[in-house]
């Protein structure tokens, strides 16, 4: 029976151009596209207003990091909106969002350090403590790993672990575009001879390595920075990561496997991208509003280390006797 089934030619075509989408929109489509575009515009306007507030009200050493971190959701919203209207540009809009978020991973680590007062203040406050490295996404299953002394070298390695992702992700993106122009790169080509099957897993490993230092630093500073709402800020950062990377990857895999049905003029893969972008616009719009509440405010400075009370002390890992007995925390 499957041999007698006819397939619409458009299901094998490239994604439609923008003018074809506009000409085929019905009333529901017009309303949906208008609402999602409105959300993307509002997200960017909210972000611009927030940048203006941060530029005027926030200390200079924290401005750059806060602006970068706050821009994650609005940038992804804007890129998703462009990909929704111009499906043939989806690869480029997704790459732009991924490159921006790679920088955000590093900037969030910098932000946590700057909230304490910078590198020197962090080393002064935390020099007598140790870092717990048995955290996700790399070593959450190894609770008895030894704790690491906090030194300039360990702080440099933490920064390097996240910074490499910001640099190499952009480098791999440029390489992918170059290979694409030569016909050697196709996101849907999972053959062993294709470039995508080698580049994407490599980027995945770099992502895991970059997320590890951020998780280590958060676990160490979550108590100290509780008054600065670091826990909900970290939750929003993680939510952007899951939605923009994991959710999109799952939808795209389902589309490439044909699980998502073809609906002319969209092929199965193009329709999967469309669904992912529409979901991201809505989700990132909500995250933009939430992060505005978290970041667009002024905080009292952290007390000096000598005056830290029980609510501002850094998280101290278990001692060696606990580690030896297997009672890791």
UniProtKB/TrEMBL annotation:
Residues 305-329 are annotated as: Disordered. One of its GO terms (cellular component) is membrane. It comes from Oncorhynchus mykiss (Rainbow trout). Its main location: membrane. It comes from the Eukaryota. It is found in: Membrane. InterPro entries: Ostalpha/TMEM184C (IPR005178). Keywords: Membrane, Transmembrane, Transmembrane helix. This is Organic solute transporter subunit alpha-like. The keyword Transmembrane helix applies. It is a multi-pass membrane protein.
């Amino acid at each position: 029976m499957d041999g007698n089934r006819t397939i619409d030619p458009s299901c094998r075509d490239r994604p439609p151009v923008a003018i074809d989408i506009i000409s085929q929109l019905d009333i529901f489509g017009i309303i949906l596209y208008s609402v999602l575009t409105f959300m993307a515009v509002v997200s960017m306007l909210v972000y611009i207003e927030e940048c203006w507030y941060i530029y005027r009200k926030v200390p200079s050493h924290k401005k750059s990091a806060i602006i970068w971190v706050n821009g994650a959701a609005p940038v992804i919203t804007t890129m998703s909106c462009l990909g929704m209207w111009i499906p043939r540009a989806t690869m480029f809009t997704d790459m732009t969002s991924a490159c921006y978020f790679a920088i955000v991973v590093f900037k969030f680590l910098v932000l946590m350090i700057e909230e304490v007062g910078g590198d020197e203040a962090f080393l002064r406050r935390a020099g007598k403590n140790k870092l717990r490295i048995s955290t996700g996404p790399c070593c959450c299953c190894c609770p008895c790993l030894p704790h690491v002394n906090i030194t300039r070298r360990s702080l440099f390695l933490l920064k390097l672990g996240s910074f490499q992702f910001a640099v190499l992700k952009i480098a791999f993106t440029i390489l992918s575009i170059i290979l694409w122009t030569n016909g050697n790169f196709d996101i849907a080509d999972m053959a062993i001879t294709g470039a995508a099957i080698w580049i994407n897993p490599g980027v995945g490993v770099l992502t895991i390595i970059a997320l590890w230092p951020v998780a280590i630093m958060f676990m160490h500073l979550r108590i100290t920075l509780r008054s600065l709402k670091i826990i909900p800020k970290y939750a929003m950062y993680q939510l952007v990561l899951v939605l923009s990377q994991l959710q999109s990857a799952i939808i795209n895999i389902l589309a490439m496997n044909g699980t998502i049905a073809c609906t002319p003029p969209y092929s199965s893969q193009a329709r999967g991208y469309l669904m992912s972008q529409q979901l991201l616009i809505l989700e990132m719009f909500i995250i933009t509003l939430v992060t505005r509440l978290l970041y667009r405010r002024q905080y009292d400075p952290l007390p000096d280390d000598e005056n830290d009370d029980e609510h501002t002390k850094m998280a101290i890992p278990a001692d060696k006797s606990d580690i030896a007995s297997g009672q890791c925390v």
